[in-house]
């Protein structure tokens, strides 16, 4: 940190970026960006998947450029101190010190959690422990935060036993407890149920009221637009003010009437008094479920985090045997898992889609077709880990679709998808239904669910 | 189910080390048997009897078989044979050596496993963090202790995803080998990626602590337990020396 700003500046974080490129990358990912963040403000940066939102967030949080690797030219002003970056000099950043001013919650909130603490309370106190805060003070701050965010019931839980939504809220609370000036949050509402999303929005308002500035990185601005002090659109590596007409388009996109469900087509799935339990667990994940699905029908599963939606999908896909009840299904199933990373094993997109298909199988002819259908042809030789989040999600879907399942099971399919990806997902669902298949999707994206599903089954906790 | 008093993890460890070193140095069969009986009694009290029996059985059975093979069946000592099958002969001396070594190993394994079952991993890491040792030691232990369960969970998720794609579903030994082969590479690559993704956020959260650090978790301790620990450490160091010295004097 080379010099203190002499003039009065109320911003807590400023970025003047000329260009940023990753190590060995042929071109800059970001260029000509200027952002200023003032205390208590809400800055929303949206853009398609792969547009560089997360990269920008990592730069603001001091996690990029990696010392001696990536190239950043420009300057960052943090807490009144200006730090210059150029191709010839990259200052060494003390990440822990930077995080006291700017904290970042990544898209996969689980990566923010330490993974080495036994309770949520300890996970919340992790930063404070490393700062040497006395135990009594830590207890007090954890209790206060938990009360404010209604996390009291989770404090004694093991962090690995949390549902996806609970995990994000706990990670956000863990980030907020050290009270940085700015919080950069990547896709804060992805995968959250209505209640959890409401809690995050409340939490955001509370933090802002306390003077914490928020920088939200999101595909969609719809939950944030009303409150935002600055709305940016990241496109072709640079920030542009978000056009208000885009917001209008966005809001009207989901307002489609629900289609009637086919009533005379044959049953493809029937579940009667199904009870689902995980091995070693005393309490059933799903105590009693009756469900029927007809050919050409799309069924939505809704319910709070932890209500057993994923468990039902796994049972239909054959990964979990019902403890009791009867289940009958016609045809093959294909399940898109919630976390795409769990579903990808190979070193190229092409190999990934081909994985597990016998050499002489006619399914090989489907590979090029499915890749084209999902817009992944140009990525055929790319490593799955190098794909933008939306393309990675579509790749996971491609691995399912290549086998032409009769019943397509989708677990949080819109998570990580940008608008373009969502359009492709809609097309896939329509194609499955048109060929006489059926779809069950579990999602917290109610707008998407109501626009594609014929009916919705609510899962009770 | 009766429960044992919650001991500081270092107390349990110190007692275990003292018992193992002294029982090994004494090498008296009835003492080893008494230690084993006590271990199973304690495991019964604490509700770990079945787990201890299964784990120690799985580890000790191959150990005993190999010892029997080395010292019992193919030993070339001159003592009278109990039974003979061509080049293989079981002798009194060979059997005695195999049993003595096996018993010593059994004490080590059973006490060690019981320790692992009795000590709460999070309490142990917290105890190390709260001790004056460098924070990196606690981190190393935590990473080692918690990496395996995390990898097991990841392995399960990879297995589920591969099952969905009809891979790694074979049965028997061939199916098992196929599953191991299919899961190993994504497991290692995924774990490395995961570690890389986590590392940067751990640094941002100030881990490992550069200066003084604290822990929210408390690890109950008392002056009595500290006394027991010191006594156990002294016994672990001096006990074998005294036992060996007494044995030498007795021999003369």
Short synopsis of the structure:
Chain A is α/β, with parallel strands linked by helices. In chain A, 30% of the residues lie in helices and 24% in strands.
Feature tags:
heterodimer, A: about 450 residues, alpha/beta, six-stranded mixed beta sheet, five-stranded antiparallel beta sheet, 19 strands, about 25% strand, globular, disordered N terminus, B: about 250 residues, mainly alpha, two-stranded antiparallel ribbon, 8 helices, 2 strands, about 5% strand, flat
Report on the structure:
The complex is a heterodimer of chains A (461) and B (252). By secondary structure, chain A is of the alpha/beta class. Chain A is 30% helix and 24% strand. In chain A, the strands form four sheets. Chain A has a six-stranded mixed β-sheet with strand order 7-8-9-4-10-11, with helices on both faces. A five-stranded antiparallel β-sheet of chain A has the order 1-6-5-2-3, with helices on one face. Chain A has a five-stranded parallel β-sheet with strand order 16-17-18-14-19, sandwiched between helices. In chain A, a hairpin with an 8-residue loop joins strand 2 (13-21) and strand 3 (30-37). In chain A, 50% of the residues are buried. Chain B is mainly alpha-helical.
Beta content of chain B comes to: under 5%
- Terminus-to-terminus distance of chain A: 52 Å
Summing up helix and strand content along with how strands pair, one would put the structural category of chain A as: alpha/beta
Largest beta sheet of chain B: what is the strand line-up?
1-2
Rounded average pLDDT of chain A: 87
Please report which band the strand proportion of chain A falls in: under 5%, 5-15%, 15-25%, 25-35%, 35-45% or over 45%. 15-25%
Distance between the termini of chain B: 50 Å
* Largest beta-sheet details of chain B: 2 strands, antiparallel
Largest sheet of chain A: 6 strands, mixed
The ordered H/E elements of chain B are HHHEEHHHHH
Question: What is the number of helices of chain A?
Answer: 13
Structural class of chain B: mainly alpha
